[in-house]
Amino acid sequence: xxxxxxxxxxxxxxxxxxxxxxxxxxxxxxxxxxxxxxxxxxxxxxxxxxxxxxxxxxxxxxxxxxxxxxxxxxxxxxxxxxxxxxxxxxxxxxxxxxxxxxxxxxxxxxxxxxxxxxxxxxxxxxxxxxxxxxxxxxxxxxxxxxxxxxxxxxxxxxxxxxxxxxxxxxxxxxxxxxxxxxxxxxxxxxxxxxxxxxxxxxxxxxxxxxxxxxxxxxxxxxxxxxxxxxxxxxxxxxxxxxxxxxxxxxxxxxxxxxxxxxxxxxxxxxxxxxxxxxxxxxxxxxxxxxxxxxxxxxxxxxxxxxxxxxxxxxxxxxxxxxxxxxxxxxxxxxxxxxxxxxxxxxxxxxxxxxxxxxxxxxxxxxxxxxxxxxxxxxxxxx
Length: 382
Hints:
Elements: E1 7-11, E2 22-23, E3 28-36, E4 38-49, H1 52-61, E5 66-70, E6 76-89, E7 92-96, E8 105-115, E9 121-128, E10 132-133, H2 135-141, E11 145-153, H3 155-168, E12 174-178, E13 187-193, E14 210-212, H4 213-221, E15 233-237, E16 243-245, H5 254-262, E17 272-276, E18 281-286, E19 291-295, E20 304-306, E21 311-312, E22 322-324, E23 344-353, E24 357-363, H6 368-374
Parallel strand pairs: 4-17, 8-11, 15-18, 19-22
Antiparallel strand pairs: 1-2, 1-5, 3-4, 3-23, 4-13, 5-6, 6-7, 6-13, 7-12, 8-9, 8-10, 14-16, 17-18, 19-20, 20-21, 22-23, 23-24
Helix pairs in contact: 4-5
C-alpha cells in the first residue's frame, strides 16, 4: 500500500510582516528530514520541479521562508526555515545562500598591541571592538551576529577587519556553474534548517555563583537578539535543580552553552534532552527509562510499532526514545536496566526519506558523560 502523502507549506520569513502561505506538495519530490535528540528539528530538504517562473521565485525570494511539513492527518512533523537554494536551469546551476553565512552584526575579539620604551610591540589583553550593525540587512534577513577572532592588532586595524567583513557578508551570496553537457531538468532543491540553528549569538553572563540548569536554559533562550520574532516557548522546559555555573564570559555561542548545560544531566547523572520543535517550543526533559517503540526483524517489511502494537508511520518516529528489537538475540535474558539490554536502542537521531525510508542512529545514555561534564572536564579516554 502506498504511504499517505505529505504536505509541505512555505510562508513569509518569520522576521517579515505579513503571511502568504502556499502549498508546494504537487511539485515536490525527494523529501527528507532529520530530528536530533539534542537539537530537535535539525534539517530538511526537498526538490521542486516546475517552470522557469517557479524556479526564479525560489532563487530570488526563497531564502528564509518559513517551512512546515504535515502528514495526512494534518499533524505537523517538521518546521524550520530555508537556509539555501540550489536551482537548476539545464546547463546552468545557481546557488543562493546559506542564509546563516550572512553577518550583519559583526565585531572582533583581538589581542591589543602596546609598545615598550623602545617602541617594540607587546601583545596585551584580549579586547573587543564595538558592534557594526547593518540595519538594512537585519531588516531583510534577521539579525545574524558574527564574532571574529584575531591575534595581535591595533584597535584601528580591528575596526577595518570588522567593517570589511560586514560589508562583504551583509547579503546572501549567489554562485553559479555552467556545464554545456548537463542534462539536468529545471528544478530547485531547498535546504532547510530547524530554528535551533538560529542559536548563533554570543551568550554572556558576568554574574557569579550557580543557578538551576533549567533556569540557565531559559535564560539563554531569552537572550536571542531576534526576540521580536524568535521568542522561544519555554513551557516545556522541565525543572532541573542541578546547580551549574551561571557565569559565561568566554564568547561562547548560545547553542554551545545549551549543549554544555544539557550534557551535565541531573544530580544523579541521568541524561537530559533538549530540542526546538513545533511553534518554537523548547523541550528540556530527562531521557526516558522505559521502551516506547519496538521493531521486529522478522517482519517482511520493517516497521516501527508502539509498544502496545499499533504501527507508527516512519515520519512520526522521534529521537530520544527507547526502541526494542524483541526478536533479536532470542533467548537473551531481559535486563531491568535498558542500558544493559543488547536488544534495546536509545534513538539519538532519526532521518526520514519519503516515502517510507527510516534511518535511526543509536546513542548512549551512559552516566559518565554527565559526571565528566559536572566535573568540568573535557572527556575521559580509554
